[in-house]
Design a protein that fits this description.
This protein has about 270 residues and is mainly beta. The protein is built from two helices and 17 strands. The chain has helices spanning about 90-105, 145; strands spanning about 5-15, 20, 30-40, 45-55, 70-75, 80-85, 115-120, 125-130, 135, 155, 165, 180-185, 200-205, 210-215, 220-225, 235-240, 255-265. The strands form four sheets. Strands 1, 4, 14, 15 and 17 form a five-stranded antiparallel β-sheet that branches. Strands 2-3-16-12-13 form a five-stranded antiparallel β-sheet, with no helix packed on it. The longest helix is centred in the middle third of the chain and has 14 residues, at about 90-105.
């Protein structure tokens, strides 16, 4: 018995201009309805699906209203303040700059407290340049997870000032360390540990923040697509998620995925 290899290739794009239907408000899920369904003949012996390329923007926020960690609460000299942090992908220097702007705009000392980092311990360092400052991480929407705090208050410190204090836990700015692309094209896909939830590709973060990840693996992982043999697929979904399969925001940017289905016919 001889087998002939056949392939079907598709480009899929989350843009509505390309015919996608967005699902939800994060931009990471879309639905496609093809004019002609994907069909693998009943006589096919075996089928696989793989993703030879994908394009994803590295801009999924680590602080946002949707995540629920976009507030910084503190008091100074008995007065309470709340900094609302715009949705974004932040590092220590970014937050330090944002806080400094808030201090200046609200008539506070521009260097009220400062953020730094200890790369050896992966912890955030606070420099309190004035007395009577208390940070409050007890509200549920505080940015305690990113900065490495439990649900707690922190301070006051001094005299003397400046007083340099370390966060109790490691910082967690790396909320997203990689992406998965999922699809309802397959019921199984590539398993993560014990479960298979439709993952068809991994997209490592290989580009700087705010840049396009143009991922083309040398040896893309193949998924068993035998379930497509003799079954047509016309309408299905794609989703971009993080390493824990949590939904991520695309910050209004589109993502693209190339899908190749391979099957073999007897001759």
């Amino acid at each position: 018995m001889n087998l002939v290899k056949k392939e079907i290739s598709y480009f899929f794009n989350s843009a509505e201009e390309a015919g996608a239907v967005k699902i939800g408000t994060l931009g990471n899920r879309f639905l496609i309805s093809l004019n002609s369904p994907i069909h693998i003949p009943q006589g096919a012996v075996y089928a696989t699906l793989h993703v030879p390329s994908s394009k994803v923007w590295n801009n999924s926020p680590n602080i946002s209203e949707q995540i629920g960690n976009n507030k910084m609460y503190f008091s100074y000299d008995g007065l309470n303040y709340v900094i609302t942090i715009p949705d974004g992908l932040y590092g220590v220097a970014d937050l330090d700059s944002l806080f400094g702007i808030f201090f200046t705009n609200n008539g506070l000392p521009s260097d009220l407290f400062e953020l730094g980092s200890n790369d050896s311990t992966q912890k955030v360092i606070f420099t309190f340049n004035y007395e009577n400052i208390i940070l409050d991480f007890t509200p549920a929407d505080s940015c305690k997870d990113v900065l490495g705090f439990d649900s707690q208050t922190f301070g006051p410190f001094g005299p003397p000032v400046p007083s340099i204090q370390s966060a109790p836990n490691e910082a967690a700015f790396n909320r997203v360390v990689g992406y998965y692309i999922k699809s309802t094209l397959l019921s199984g896909g590539i398993p993560q540990n014990k479960t298979s939830n439709g993952i068809i590709a991994e997209v490592p973060i290989t580009a700087p923040v705010g840049s396009l990840i143009n991922y083309q693996p040398r040896n893309p992982i193949k998924s068993d697509a035998t379930e497509l043999i003799g079954n047509s697929k016309q309408t299905f979904q794609f989703a971009l998620v993080d390493q824990l399969e949590r939904d991520v925001s695309t910050a209004n940017e589109e993502f693209q995925v190339t899908v190749v289905i391979t099957y073999f016919m007897k001759v």
